[in-house]
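Troubleshooting log. The previous structure file for this entry was overwritten by mistake, so regenerating from the original sequence record. Sequence copied from the archived sheet and checked twice against the printout by T.R.
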Amino acid sequence: MSNTISQCLNPNCQQQNASGTRVCIRCGTNLVLDNRYRLEKFIGEGGFGRTFKAIDEKKLNKPCVVKQFLPQQIGSSALAKATELFQQEAERLDQLGTHPQIPDLLAFFEQEGRFYLIQQFIDGQDLLKELNQNGKFSESQIYHLLRELLPVLEFIHSHGIIHRDIKPDNIIRNNQGSLVLIDFGVSKLLSGSILTRMGTIAGTPSYAPPEQMRGMVYPASDLYSLGVTCIRLLTRCLPEEDGSDELFDPINLQWTWRTKVNINSELEKVLDKLLQEKVGERYQDVNSILQVINVINSPSAMQADSFLKQGINELEIGNYQAALLNFNQVITLQPHNAKAYCCRGNAYYRLDDYKAVIIECSQAISLKPDYAEAYYCRGNAYYRLWDNKAAISDFSQAINLKPDYAGAYYCRGYTYYRLGDNQAAISDFSQAINLKPDYAEAYYYRGNAYYNLGDNQGAISDFSQAIKLKPDYAEAYYYRGNAYYNLGNYQAAIAEFSQAINLKSDYAEAYYYRGNVYINLGNYQAAIAEFSQAINLKPDYAEAYHYRGNAYYNLGDKQAAILDYSQAINLKPDYAEAYRMRGFAYNLLGYNQGAISDLNQAIRLQPGEPLAYLCRGYFYESQKNYKAAILDFEQVIRIQPDNADARENLALLYQKIGDSPWNLLSNLFK
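Regenerated output below.
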């Protein structure tokens, strides 16, 4: 006798008695069924009975399962019919018990006015627990499940029995690794008769097909439930307690699982056919499914799968040419393998062959129209080729197919950002962040969009979050420095640029902007050092030459300033500011022809910029060409009516030439 407790059978008592007790100490119920089965542990309860783990005292305490028939809320006539059917089904289960993947029926009897089924105990773990422990099932695991369970279904269907409640909870992997189908419960077996008329529908709603919920079942009904089981194991998306289901669209009555997995397109077709709403559009028998499975999971298919996995591994470690060779092999073996085309497109993307990416992903989409990842990959290729409209279209399609696709929102946002649509960019980056709260890049680029809109505080907040998520994010420090610079917080800006340089020593732009801060602080020598470092790192950095020229100019070294302005102009021939400042420097050195030439060029390049006219006006004034100076100052006021310098100089010039302020005003409005 094992050292166990004895669970009372009386549903109104349920006393746990000491080991070896023959009669319940509380209610007096006999604790040993049929003089051999002692209940140890309550397992579960349904609308028609309770289930216990027990031991068989006549078989060396071998474990078994006891099902107590305990129908609830049934009238006397229905109870009589239920009892009759229970006896009939016990005979059927006895026949099914000869199958190695179905628990044996060990006994069926009545005791003290209640019926009992005694079945073989399966030592193992059901697939729901396995799913929760190990995560999503792989494609190969689904093939294995189908190969193991389909023959079991064929067996029970051939005996005229339909399981009616196939789901992960009712499939146990035993200690030998084989799958066993359990729970041929009375409620399921009775559902096609009196229980349906009583308003009780057998099965689990989130797994049962539509016809079963209307009280009718066929062999294809079990196949439907098997299909639902497969997609839940592939996606790990289970129905919620409130009835909501991430995998099912109740409005269109469609399963929406395909965007959540990336498996062989042929297996997708098999599962789709299992899940058809209309019975006639599903597979009608097990053999028709096995024939397809044997083809798509044949040795050549397994070889293709091996090449695909190896190609993905090569892709992940950066061996792109080797990845291509593997994907080529897959496509040779399986010309309709959409995933292989998409993966080959990814390899071409890494090799910067964007036109090839578009060809490959388009082929993948033609084979699998709801392939969100292929749209995403092709969208990135269009982006690289500057086809922004096509990129946005593909990212949008990826999002339509996979609404939780954070990467697609991010890339679409980045495309809008490139186009200057900062508001649309912010919207998409925000959605990416909602879906993926640790998306540092999305915070960073949203910060840039806020920066472009002049929201420096919003930008600083996002750059700070990006840095929190990614402490070595040099670019985020750099742009946070720019935002502080715009706010006039120069010391904070210097600290940010310095941190960016610490993280990225060749960051020319950070040296450049740190130099600009030093100019604003009047530290021109420090500014020159920063601009010089920026130029060393980036010899074609026209702006760095220009601002180093400004620093030399402020230090009075006009010759050095002219050299830098000239270099800036060589690198950037349309650099109006460099012409203007060089013209100023020429003027101070007395090189009048060079001065007027540069100022004229600055105005030609930027005719709407008042500063160039103001500078040329000063020049003409210094040359006593008052009428030309007046014309330039008047132009400044036309462009910028509140320019105090232009108004003051214009008034002085009119005094010099003896004209009146009234003439000044009338001239301005001619």
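DSSP finds 31 helices and 13 strands in the chain. Archived copy saved in two places this time.
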